[in-house]
């Protein structure tokens, strides 16, 4: 086991990792930007080191500063959390070259699964269904148009190295496709330093289902059931649940087996998530693999009783899994709401500023993962996530009722948050029936968008 771990992140995930480390008897080092000097992770960690100015490029994305902090603190492991450098293969390589364990998969696996074109080809060869479309980068409009006419509109253009909805456009005709191709290539180059894009069939009104996998360095790989992440805004998840109301035991078993097969094909270790789209006919297709801990990992923890962060740290330390697939049981139902500092009534405009009133819910079946306290200043430099409100109940309906009660209790003032939107979702009969698709916010709640 590690003696000291540096957390190369901020906010609630930094707090989550620090807590897991404390329970494992591992000392922690928080790194922070000047904007996070008074943050909760800084107060909870055994040591804290400032790594730069508020902007992420000068701090949480500053590899030399993070490695310098790790060497000064004499750590033997670095946990990247999610976002920032968590899926940066170069960072993982640098950690290893400095004899510091990167608590995640190998750089090779990150690089392979981070290239969506290469990942699609890998899983296709492993016998896993993929969305119809191009199997290599689309270089010009002629290639794009040829593919679109073969698989029929609508199609979607995606960045090969993309994520979070960047470098992604839906197209319903030739004119839109030609325009989107150039836009996505430019956006992909600016966001990821890689202008390669591909074209695939756009599945209309699908559900987004992901499988949590856990793999050690001794060849053991498990899946821990599915999460339903269908409710999204611009490909950013807002509500997650486990299990999914759309997945029956037979489909769960098949998706789990294929997720494990994908992980094996990639030579994967650590925690990871294999993501699928489920169409209206019950067919599912691989779309990508996230090579990190997911924001929504708590819902899996709540229904399985397995601490994914502790397991991630243990397997990074070389320990074999002491679980077998038959040991995994899904008990009850868990749901998560992402509480963001945004104003849903104003096009989800960011809402930074000081929180003067803060009261988080509690009681049976309620968990809150957050770094927020009264008096906290929400900085304008980072992702707007303030907290994750997670609930558990014996059934889906009971979990919904627990969430409704918890949302009513939650007070974050005076900034705007997504709590009112979540109240609306959890009181909607369509959501109660589980009749949702990725366009739910637009179709059912008629949420307005702004560019």
In short:
This protein has 451 residues and is of the alpha+beta class.
Question: What amount of the residues lies in strands?
Answer: 25-35%
Biggest sheet, strands in spatial order?
A: 13-12-9-10-11-14-21-19
- Count of spatially separate domains: 3
Which consecutive residue ranges, at least 5 long each, have pLDDT under 50?
Answer: none
Please give a structural write-up.
- This protein is of the alpha+beta class and 451 residues long.
- It folds into three domains: 4-103, Rossmann fold; 132-201, ATP-grasp fold, A domain (Dna Ligase, domain 1); 207-443, ATP-grasp fold, B domain (D-amino Acid Aminotransferase, Chain A, domain 1, 2-Layer Sandwich).
- The protein is 33% helix and 26% strand.
- The protein has an eight-stranded antiparallel β-sheet with strand order 13-12-9-10-11-14-21-19, sandwiched between helices. The protein has a five-stranded parallel β-sheet with strand order 3-2-1-4-5.
- The chain is globular, with a radius of gyration of 21 Å.
- The model has no long low-confidence stretch (mean pLDDT 96).
Topology:
Elements: E1 4-7, H1 11-24, E2 27-33, H2 40-44, E3 47-52, H3 63-73, E4 77-79, H4 89-97, E5 101-102, H5 107-114, H6 116-125, H7 141-151, E6 155-159, E7 168-171, H8 174-192, E8 197-201, E9 207-215, E10 221-233, E11 236-242, H9 249-265, E12 270-278, E13 284-290, H10 297-304, H11 308-316, E14 333-340, E15 342-343, E16 349-350, E17 353-354, E18 357-359, E19 366-370, E20 377-378, E21 385-393, H12 396-409, E22 411-413, H13 419-426, H14 429-432, H15 440-443
Parallel strand pairs: 1-2, 1-4, 2-3, 4-5
Antiparallel strand pairs: 6-7, 6-8, 9-10, 9-12, 10-11, 11-14, 12-13, 14-21, 15-16, 17-20, 18-22, 19-21
Helix pairs in contact: 4-5, 7-8, 12-13
């Amino acid at each position: 086991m590690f003696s000291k771990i540096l957390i190369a992140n901020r906010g609630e995930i930094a707090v989550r990792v620090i807590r897991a480390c404390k329970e494992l008897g591992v000392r922690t080092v928080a790194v922070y930007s000047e904007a996070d000097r008074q943050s909760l992770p800084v107060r909870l960690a055994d040591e804290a080191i400032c790594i730069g100015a508020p902007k992420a490029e000068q701090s949480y994305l500053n590899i030399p500063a993070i490695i310098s902090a790790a060497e000064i603190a004499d750590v033997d492991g670095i946990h990247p959390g999610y976002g920032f450098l968590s899926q940066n293969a170069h960072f993982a390589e640098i950690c290893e070259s400095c004899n510091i364990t990167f608590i995640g998969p190998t750089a090779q696996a990150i690089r392979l699964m981070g290239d969506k074109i290469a990942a699609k080809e890998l899983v296709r060869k492993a016998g896993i269904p993929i969305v119809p479309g191009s199997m290599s980068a689309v270089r010009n409009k002629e290639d794009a148009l040829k593919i679109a006419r073969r698989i029929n509109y609508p199609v979607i253009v995606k960045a090969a190295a993309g994520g979070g909805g960047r470098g992604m456009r839906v197209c319903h005709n030739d004119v839109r496709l030609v325009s989107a191709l150039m836009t996505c290539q430019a956006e992909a180059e600016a966001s990821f330093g890689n202008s390669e894009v591909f074209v695939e069939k756009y599945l209309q009104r699908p559900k987004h289902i992901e499988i949590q996998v856990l793999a050690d360095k001794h060849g053991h790989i498990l899946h821990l059931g599915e999460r339903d992440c269908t409710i999204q805004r611009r490909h950013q998840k807002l509500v997650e649940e486990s299990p999914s109301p759309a997945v029956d035991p037979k489909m769960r078993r098949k998706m789990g087996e294929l997720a494990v097969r994908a992980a094996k094909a990639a030579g994967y270790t650590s925690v990871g998530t294999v993501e699928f789209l489920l169409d209206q006919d019950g067919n599912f297709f691989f779309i990508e693999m996230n090579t990190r801990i997911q924001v929504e990992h708590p819902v899996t923890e709540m229904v399985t009783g397995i601490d994914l962060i502790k397991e991630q740290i243990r397997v990074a330390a070389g320990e074999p899994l002491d679980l077998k697939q038959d040991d995994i049981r899904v008990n009850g139902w868990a749901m998560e709401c992402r509480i963001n500092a945004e104003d849903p009534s104003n096009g989800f405009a960011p809402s930074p500023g000081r929180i003067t009133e803060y009261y988080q819910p509690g009681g049976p079946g309620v968990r809150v993962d957050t770094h927020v306290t009264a008096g906290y200043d929400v900085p304008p430099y980072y992702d707007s996530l303030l907290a994750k409100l997670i609930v558990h109940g014996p059934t889906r309906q009971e979990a919904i009722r627990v969430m409704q009660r918890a949302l009513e209790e939650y007070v974050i003032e005076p900034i705007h948050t997504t709590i009112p939107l979540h109240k609306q979702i959890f009181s909607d009969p369509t959501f109660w029936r589980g009749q949702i698709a990725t366009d739910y916010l637009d179709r059912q709640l008629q949420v307005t968008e702004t560019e």
